Amino acid sequence: MAKNWELVPVADWGFFTLPRPMVIAGPCSAETEEQVMTTAAGLAREGIHVFRAGIWKPRTHPGSFEGVGSEGLRWMKRVQKELGMKVGTEVASAKHVYECLKYGLDYLWIGARTTANPFLMQELADALQGTDIPILVKNPVNTDIDLWIGALERLYGAGIRKLGVIHRGFSSLEKTAYRNAPGWQIAIELRSRYPELPFFADPSHMGGSRDFLPEISQRAMDLGLEGLMIESHCDPSCALSDAKQQLTPDALGRLLASLVIREKDSDSVDYRENIDQLRAQIDILDENLLFTLKSRMEISRKIGLFKKEHNIAILQTARWDELLGEMVSKGQGYGLTEGFVKDVFNAIHEASVQVQNEILSQD
Ligand code: PEP
Ligand code: MN
User: Fold this and answer.
1) What is the pLDDT of residues 76-130, one digit of tens each?
2) CA distance 81 to 156
3) 110 with 92: CB under 8 angstroms?
4) pTM for this prediction
5) d(Cα 251, Cα 253) in Å, to the nearest integer?
6) 167 in helix, strand or coil?
7) Ligand 1 nearest atom to the CA of residue 109, by list position
8) 93, 106, 261, 350: most buried by Cβ count inside 10 Å?
9) Range of the domain at 305
10) Domain of residue 235, CATH code
11) Which residues line ligand 1 (CB under 6 A)?
């Protein structure tokens, strides 16, 4: 288990200059040699020295741009040699791993769709056995922390000791403003179980739009995560994949400069209990509460319309008393007092009744 894991600390990988955030940046996809070199040079000018670019792209629909393939590895090699940057890409099969090792890439990452697949994870772990290349594992597309941990265990089992994780959010049924629901609580859970794993956030895939990058990046820093992986393209509007979420290197430089980094002493006992991190966790729960309240209100409205259509009375006191009783006893199971549960649910119920009354009074 986690406590027995002996990992090479990220500070010893020779990749990042501290302080936080450690930044990995580059285009969603390598498209042309010129695009790769121009973007990488721009990033180097911003003081970013760890480059990313997708060479094989997992696209939802066939016929979309699926990456340039091995040819792009030569361009990555140029970035490494000419600009002195560390270079890495996403691997999803043993063949990808062998190609990347042949070209001497510095690190690899595992994409969200691959982490979710134990067969592929085992194939990758087997292909990586005996190497010491750093591997970053993105969260699986679905909110299953054990799939994420299982993927890490397979790599650890294959002898990988330079391991890290990237949190990029989750697919969800509910439509949210972000491309992928943050599900920060899962990241927090993984972090508390495996505090030694270097932790990156991927605001680009989480947000899906340039507009959300500052708030997500700041939140990642407030949660005490070590790094950011952000997509950057020399000409985002022309990108062949993920055009809406990429930033030019100088816009990325400005974003990074705007982040407020509340540094903590990582050796102090209360490092993980830092008040800023706890507050950030409360903010996340409050946002989840608001979202739940909004969803509940939408359903209330639908019930109101149904009642109106079928001439049913809005206030059904007996049903509410029964439900409230059940909530109180469930709440007590969670250590919440009767008074608190009643106050909260009566307020919610009152707001619902009010909405339904408004519906009834409309023609
Ligand atoms: C990517 O990093 O370009 C990518 C495909 O990400 P994810 O696996 O998070 O969807
Ligand atoms: Mn992308």
Assistant:
1) 999 999 999 999 999 999 999 999 999 999 999 999 999 999 999 999 999 999 9
2) 30
3) yes
4) 0.82
5) 5
6) strand
7) 2
8) 106
9) 269-361
10) 3.20.20.70
11) 28, 54, 58, 90, 111-112, 138, 168, 202, 205
